Amino acid sequence: MDVFLLQVLNGLDKGSAYAMIALGLTLIFGTLGVVNFAHGALFMLGAFCSVALNKLLTLEKIALSETEMTAWGTPLEIRTPYAEAWFGDFGAWVIDWSVPLSILIAIPFMLLVGIVMERGLIRHFYKRPHAEQILVTFGLAIVLQEIIKAWFGANPIPQPAPEALTGMMDFGAAIGMDAGNVVYPAWRLVYFLFAAAVIGAVFAFLQFTTFGMVVRAGMADRETVGLLGINIDKRFTLTFGIAAVVAGLAGVMYSPILSPNYHLGMDFLVLSFVVVVVGGMGSLPGAVAAGMLLGILQSFASMNEVKAIFPGIDQIIIYLVAVVILLARPRGLLGRKGVMES
């Protein structure tokens, strides 16, 4: 039972990332009909928002010690981050919590990036074949990752989680099991809870607001909504921006789990598209359910006992499950009739 619960937790934290990226992909496809292969790059940009803020906050003030010397007889350099030198303990706290605080930068930045992408490029491909949409968005993804590579370098850049959340949490004891049986990294649990909150907020926004109601109506019948005099194009532009924000937030909070690098988006993109297809093209609940399901299956397939019997199964399990599900149900788990069937 302990091993089972640990693998479920492992699957949920990775599945949360899949679900958040797939949710944005599905939102864009459901509203705009665009297959956006640049969505993984938005996940990467979110991760580098945390990198950029951390680098800014840790810019150092260098002073020479008057009493301490190096082994070569020169004054010892004392390096103090400007934030800490100017603001003392508060500055040190801001540096420690730089990853969560970078959310405040990521939200407006990713919203702006999403709107610029949609207005500047994506809108010109609404009525073009999906193959052309894939090519142009994939090209955009390559451009974005090369910009990040040129600016931040090719090597992964580790991001520290807040010190208070870097330890292990006794999850088993928290749910009434024996203490010490199910111990799990605290930040991964935080990531799962954060993802659940973001996904819940997106569904609540679409379900209970007038804006969300119009977007859902536009997903079902764009022409009819337009005939009612509603500027659906403006709302869909904002929806693209919201999808970009969701992907960016997923990247921000995932940066302490997997050190950001310029090809981070590509690593998650293909798997996220598999999640979208398995869940059902255009189905938001399907994207979330498939993300969690495939994350958990991948976690169990990564166990040494399983790999000893089926070597390499952890690398292909998601694709095998996708094949089985699509053979049994071509629309995906919760796919709507007529979507991607023409």
Structure characterization notes:
With 342 residues, this protein is mainly alpha-helical. It has a single domain, classed as ABC transporter involved in vitamin B12 uptake, BtuC (Orthogonal Bundle), CATH 1.10.3470. The protein has 16 helices and four strands. The chain has helices at 2-32, 39-57, 82-87, 89-96, 98-101, 103-120, 130-152, 171-174, 186-208, 210-220, 222-227, 232-254, 264-279, 284-301, 304-309, 313-328; strands spanning 60-69, 75-81, 168-170, 183-185. The protein starts with a helix and ends in a 14-residue tail after the last helix. Keywords: Amino-acid transport, Cell membrane, Membrane, Transmembrane, Transmembrane helix, Transport. One of its GO terms (biological process) is amino acid transport. Belongs to the binding-protein-dependent transport system permease family. LivHM subfamily. GO terms for molecular function: transmembrane transporter activity.
Number of strands: 4
Examine the coordinates and then state which fold CATH places here, giving the name of the CATH topology. Answer: ABC transporter involved in vitamin B12 uptake, BtuC
Number of domains: 1
| CATH architecture identity | Orthogonal Bundle
For the record, the CATH class is Mainly Alpha
The percent range for strand residues is 5-15%
Unreliable stretches, pLDDT < 50, 5 or more residues?
Answer: none
Rounded mean pLDDT score: 85
Largest sheet descriptor: 2 strands, antiparallel
Structural class: mainly alpha
Series of secondary-structure elements, N-terminal to C-terminal: HHEEHHHHHEHEHHHHHHHH
Q: Largest beta sheet: what is the strand line-up?
A: 1-2
* Overall 3D form: globular
